[in-house]
Design a protein that fits this description.
alpha/beta, seven-stranded mixed β-sheet, about 25% strand, 18 strands, 3 helices, five-stranded parallel β-sheet
């Protein structure tokens, strides 16, 4: 199993069976992500050093306009894509094995969590994981302490209120809040 094989499989939404080669690859890859995250979070880092560590974590060059305030936790890294001018505040946790894409100009409030894997409902298969990507559009604002669950798409220009739990897609330019998040109103932006 290599990274390309794993990512190809995850993109299909195929189950990652507990104990399988894919599961072992995920656990092994998590160790690399944990090492980079530990280095990122172990002391002061300049903005350039933070971006260099994010580039190591993701396996691709992170745009110079990306800003991240540690601490930051990420369990995989290689399925995380950050657009230009993305800002990620302190204390965020990303579980990106299923795929996280964050669009240009998006702001992620401190303490937010984005997850992309569900476990099987059947207790006999609980170690199995079902990947589902999260796509956060351009110029989105996630308030502090937001949780985004697997398979959600948040449209361009949307605002997610602090503490919301986003369990379904959010339309472009919507303002959502609550648990579960629901549309409060539209911003009127084009």
């Amino acid at each position: 199993m290599n990274l390309d094989d794993f990512l190809d499989r995850v993109r299909t939404g195929a189950v990652i069976e507990g104990g399988s080669a894919e599961h072992a690859f995920l656990i092994e890859s998590a160790q690399d992500a944990l090492r980079v995250s530990a280095e990122l979070n172990s002391g002061y880092r300049t903005p350039g050093e933070v971006r260099d560590l994010l580039s190591r974590l993701t396996g691709r060059t992170v745009p110079e306009s990306v800003t991240l305030f540690p601490p930051f936790h990420c369990e995989f890294g290689k399925n995380l894509t950050l657009g230009d001018d993305v800002f990620i505040n302190m204390g965020c946790t990303f579980q990106d094995a299923g795929g996280i894409t964050i669009g240009d100009g998006t702001l992620i409030g401190h303490g937010s969590t984005v997850v992309t894997l569900n476990h099987a409902i059947d207790p006999a298969r609980r170690a199995d994981m079902v990947p589902a990507p999260v796509v956060i559009g351009r110029k989105v604002w996630l308030g502090a302490g937001v949780t985004v669950v697997p398979g959600v798409t948040i449209g361009d220009g949307a605002v997610v209120g602090a503490g919301a739990v986003v369990t379904k897609d959010v339309p472009a330019n919507a303002i959502v809040a609550g648990v579960p998040a629901r549309v409060i109103r539209m911003t009127g932006a084009a």
